[in-house]
Amino acid sequence: MSGASLKVIYHDLYLTDYPTASCETPSRVESIMRVLGKDYPILEPSPADEEDILLVHTPSILESVKREPDLYSAALMAAGGAVMAAELACEGQVSFAAVRPPGHHASPDGHWGFCFFNNVAISLEKLIYNGKIAQALVLDIDLHFGDGTDRFFAGRKDVEVANIQDNHREAFLRNVDRALSSHEYDIIAISAGFDRHVHDWGGTLTTDDYFTFGRSVRDFAADRCEGRCYAVLEGGYNIDVLGENALALCRGLEPTP
Ligand SMILES: [Zn+2]
Predict the structure, then answer these.
(1) DSSP SS3 for 231
(2) CA 195 to ligand 1 center in whole angstroms
(3) How far is the CA of 145 from the centre of ligand 1 (A)?
(4) Distance 219 CA to ligand 1 centre (A)
(5) Among the four residues 45, 114, 187, 189, which has the most C-beta atoms within 10 Å?
(6) Is 134 contained in some domain?
(7) pTM for the complete prediction?
(8) 31 alpha-carbon distance from chain centroid
(9) CA of 102 to the centre of ligand 1 (A)
């Protein structure tokens, strides 16, 4: 097993066929795990608690998701996967959480775009609430603007949200470096959407670019925040390339032995 220093967080509940858009299928995570499962150890998370969800969302959002029991179980486990990734990162362990449903379009009092609970926002807010970190950066590389995360952390001095939105690959990678160089952080959370790939909806990034991106984050984190970084799956809809793209990101993020 190569790359054993990176962990993959996965639970069978991520394969739940809950009511959502037809493109956001269980086969997305299946295709990722078919590739990552060969190379990395897999850790099983616990579901997030209601109190974790309520760190970010209103009670009415919690109650509305609860009305779909299959969706609710998967969504709690997705948030729990992100929480586990964030806590591992604090202990110096890099991980990729291969969760469904995604989260970055879920804001405190609303959700759309196949998202229900904001996994990344919940994971960071829990670290801050527990006093484990003081400054964080969210790097969102999904094709779509992560409006939910942006809205939740708007006006906050402790969490910066950088949505990298360029449609040219060189500019995209340059802006990643710019986002990384600007401040000091205790941890970096990646909203890892792969729908900007050349063979996905965005038609922009190559598989190698996900490696380059991951390596930039890894090097910055090693330099500035004791290697504390983690990635949580957001979008990515072409299951023929999704696994290889996730693998490229994981390879980039792997800590130096
Ligand atoms: Zn997207």
Answers:
(1) strand
(2) 6
(3) 8
(4) 26
(5) 189
(6) yes
(7) 0.97
(8) 17
(9) 9
18 — pLDDT class (breaks 50, 70, 90): very high
Measured in Å, residue 1 CA sits from the centre of ligand 1 at 31
How far does the centroid of ligand 1 lie from the alpha carbon of residue 40, in Å? 25
Residue whose pair of structure tokens reads 């939910």 in the numeric block: 148
Residue 1, domain member (yes or no): no
CATH of residue 195's domain is: 3.40.800.20
Q: How many domains does the chain have?
A: 1
Q: 148 lies in a domain?
A: yes
191 Cα distance to chain centroid: 4
- Kindly state the tokens that stand for 165: 């939105």
236 alpha carbon to ligand 1 midpoint, in Å?
7
Higher-confidence residue of 245 and 2: namely 245
Nearest-angstrom CA–CA distance, 34 and 31: 5
Count of alpha carbons within 13 angstroms of residue 228, beta-carbon side:
23
Please tell me the distance between residue 257's alpha carbon and the centre of ligand 1 in angstroms.
33
Alpha carbons 173 and 164: distance in angstroms, whole number: 9
Predicted confidence (pLDDT) at residue 237 exceeds the cutoff of 50: yes
d(CA 26, CA 21): 11
- Average pLDDT (120-136) is 97
In a domain, 203, yes or no: yes
Say how many Å lie between the CA of residue 150 and the centre of ligand 1: 14
Q: Which tokens hold the place of 105?
A: 């379009």
Q: How far is the CA of 205 from the centre of ligand 1 (A)?
A: 13
Q: Which domain holds residue 37?
A: 6-253
**Rounded to the nearest 10 degrees, how much is the dihedral formed by the CA atoms of 240, 213, 79, 185?**
180
For residues 163 and 186, give the distance between their C-alpha atoms in angstroms, rounded to a whole number.
Answer: 19
Q: What is the Å distance from ligand 1's center to 21 Cα? A: 13
| Structure-block tokens of residue 41 | 């150890």
91 alpha carbon to ligand 1 midpoint, in Å? 29
